[in-house]
Amino acid sequence: MEKAGTKVVKDEDKAIKSANSCCFLRAMGTLEKDKMVRNPDYLSKDLTSLKFKLVYNLIPLKFFKSFIEKRFPTSYHHLIARTKHVDKIFLEEIKHGVEQIVILGAGYDSRAYRFSNRLAGIKVFELDFPGTQTLKKKRLKKLFNKIPENVIHVPIDFTAKTIEDVLKESEFDAKKRTFFIWEGVSMYLTESAVDLVLKFVSENAAPASSIVWDYAYKSFIDGKYMPKGGIEAAEHAKKNNEPYLFGVKRDKMINFMNDRGFEIISHLSPKDLENLYLKKNDGEIDGNVHQYINIVYAKVI
Length: 301
Ligand SMILES: C[S@@+](CC[C@H](N)C(=O)[O-])C[C@H]1O[C@@H](n2cnc3c(N)ncnc32)[C@H](O)[C@@H]1O
What we know:
8-stranded mixed beta sheet; binds S-adenosylmethionine; globular; two-stranded antiparallel ribbon; Rossmann fold; alpha/beta
């Protein structure tokens, strides 16, 4: 806790807002009647703020969807598709023998708790901004009384410290096959901060380690490509003091990852995400994802 003038500023007051918004959108998505579209993150409603929990409890999904589609177009469906895709890879990694998991910029990611019965012997390291983490731990304790022993919360500011600095002081074991999740974070970082993360993963993780991460199109970051929802999202990010900074051209991504020691396993475009995860029972797509974000899954060469 630190003092700013006479006002006491708690760590949790500095929690990153975008993490709470993502969690809230996931919570609303769990209310979908159609199983094919529903967001599987059933813990999100308990990890979001009280204010958003009230909305979850009181506002019918139909009204919420029409409101959010006007205010922040594509964000609601984006969170559904992203959660489902990363969940799928997460479970495949466990099936194929991953030995530890690191979640970078974890926010209110609930996988360590939702899938706890499949994580015997697998440590999960959640790295995040200290303020966000303090608040999350408070909510987890309220929910489960205590935090599971295999989950290790590691505070970090990616712009001030390297993952190496913080992980080498934790129980992270560089000899173990590791799966890294880096969801909804890279766009808020500088290119050098992104490079440091990828460098750490490629140089410090055992063979067959992998990472799933999402990135924005460079043209979106530069303001040259503004598809539906782009302006609203960029303005909101700026207003929250979390401006979008980093992007890559989609056709440069293979080289981008190769140059940093990775081979791409999958590279999903917005259309791929919609077709895979947002098709309703009747075959129609329920809504669009962010048209400026792709998701890459790659393994260390
Ligand atoms: C949009 S949220 C995504 C959170 C989570 N991965 C999810 O998908 O719900 C961005 C996350 O990045 C973290 N973050 C942003 N800038 C950071 C920084 N400089 N250092 C550490 N974490 C940061 C925030 O605390 C937040 O949890």
